[in-house]
C-alpha cells in the first residue's frame, strides 16, 4: 500500500477509498476527482463525480482541453446517483465507470458518451442545448507516485499520479502518457459560501506540486505538498496565492507561493461550469489547464481551479503571504 503522510487530526484508512455513509446535511457531498496533463501541455482532461444523496442527485463532469482546441465537455448537474456501493453513472447520453483495484493504488476511469463542443469556454455557463456535440471517451489509468497526502483536519486526500491509456474525441483516438492527480473527499460542502484556489502540477524536473487556499478574508499559511524527483511525498505549510481576473471573470494568471519556490501560472485552456444551489443561487466553477513557471527556471503543466460563489470578489483573492524560507 502507498505511504500515507499523517499530519492531522484524523487517520486515513484503506476503506476510505470506498463510498461513505452520508451525514444528515442537505449538502453532504462525496467527491472523486481524476485529472491529467501531458508534460508539454498539449492536452489535458479531468473527471469529477460528486454524490449528493440527500439532494437526490450526482454531478458528473468530464472535460478535454488543449491549446488551439475547443473545450469538449460533459457537464451534468442532474446525473442519477450510482447504485449503493458503486461509483458508476449511467445517463441517457453517457456511461461512466470508475474502479480502484487496491487501496491508494491503481484507479481505472472509463467514459463513453456525447459531449458539447465549445469554442468559447464561457458558453459552458449557459444552456448547452443546441451546442455542437461529439463523442468523448476516456479509457484511463491513474498510478500512484510516491504516496498519499491527507488534509490535516478534514476527510480529504490527494494522490499524485502518472496517467496512461487513451482518449477518443470525435474520430480521433489519442494515446495518453501524462501526469496528474486524483483526490477523494466527503462531508458537508457549501459551494455557495466560500471561494478558493486549488492547484496541482508537475514541473519539468519531475517535481509534483500541490496547494490549496480558501479565501476567508485574511492570509494564513495554507498547507501544500511537493514530491521531489524519485522522492517521497512531503507535507509543507506556508502556501498562498494571488490571482488576476479578466473578461468573463476568467483568471489571467496567479502568483503562487510554495515554501521557498515562488511560482507563476498562466491558464492555457479553460473548462468552467456553472452550478446552482437548492435555493437558486448561482456560482461559477473555473478550472483550467495551466503552465507553471517557477522562479528558478523550472516549468511544467497541471490543473488549477478558482471557485466563484456569490460575492466572491469580496473574499480576498489579492492575499499573498511574504516569501517563506
Automatic annotation (TrEMBL):
Residue spans of biased composition, Basic and acidic residues class: 308-325
Region named Disordered: 299-325
InterPro entries, alphabetized: DUF7064, DUF7065
SUPFAM superfamilies noted in UniProt: AttH-like
Segments forming domain DUF7064: 191-310
The species this protein was found in: Actinomadura livida
Listed name of the protein: DUF2804 domain-containing protein
Span of domain DUF7065: 157-189
Amino acid at each position: 500500500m502507498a505511504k500515507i503522510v499523517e499530519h492531522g487530526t484524523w487517520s486515513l484508512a484503506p476503506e476510505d477509498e470506498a463510498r461513505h455513509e452520508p451525514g444528515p446535511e442537505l449538502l453532504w457531498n462525496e467527491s472523486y476527482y481524476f485529472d491529467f496533463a501531458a508534460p508539454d501541455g498539449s492536452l489535458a482532461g479531468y473527471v469529477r463525480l460528486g454524490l449528493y444523496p440527500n439532494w437526490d442527485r450526482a454531478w458528473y463532469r468530464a472535460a478535454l482541453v488543449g491549446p488551439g482546441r475547443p473545450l469538449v465537455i460533459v457537464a451534468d448537474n442532474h446525473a442519477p446517483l450510482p447504485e449503493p456501493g458503486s461509483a458508476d453513472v449511467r445517463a441517457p447520453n453517457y456511461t461512466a465507470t470508475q474502479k480502484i483495484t487496491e487501496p491508494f493504488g491503481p484507479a481505472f476511469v472509463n467514459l463513453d458518451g456525447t459531449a458539447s463542443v465549445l469554442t468559447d469556454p464561457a458558453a459552458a455557463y449557459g444552456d448547452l442545448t443546441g451546442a455542437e456535440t461529439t463523442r468523448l471517451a476516456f479509457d484511463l489509468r491513474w498510478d500512484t507516485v510516491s504516496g498519499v497526502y491527507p488534509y490535516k483536519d478534514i476527510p480529504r486526500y490527494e494522490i499524485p499520479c502518472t496517467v496512461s491509456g487513451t482518449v477518443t474525441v470525435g474520430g480521433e483516438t489519442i494515446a495518453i502518457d501524462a501526469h496528474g492527480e486524483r483526490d477523494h473527499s466527503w462531508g458537508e460542502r457549501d459551494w455557495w459560501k466560500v471561494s478558493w484556489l486549488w492547484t496541482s502540477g508537475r514541473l519539468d524536473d519531475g517535481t509534483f506540486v500541490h496547494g490549496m487556499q480558501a479565501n476567508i478574508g485574511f492570509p494564513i499559511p495554507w498547507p501544500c505538498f511537493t514530491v521531489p524527483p524519485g522522492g517521497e511525498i512531503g507535507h509543507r505549510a506556508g502556501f498562498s496565492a494571488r490571482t488576476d481576473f479578466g473578461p468573463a471573470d476568467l483568471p489571467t494568471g496567479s502568483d503562487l507561493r510554495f515554501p521557498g519556490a515562488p511560482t507563476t501560472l498562466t491558464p492555457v485552456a479553460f473548462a468552467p461550469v456553472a452550478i446552482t444551489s437548492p435555493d437558486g443561487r448561482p456560482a461559477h466553477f473555473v478550472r483550467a489547464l495551466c503552465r507553471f513557471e517557477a522562479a528558478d527556471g523550472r516549468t511544467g503543466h497541471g490543473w488549477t481551479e478558482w471557485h466563484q460563489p456569490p460575492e466572491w470578489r469580496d473574499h480576498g483573492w489579492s492575499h499573498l503571504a511574504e516569501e517563506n524560507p
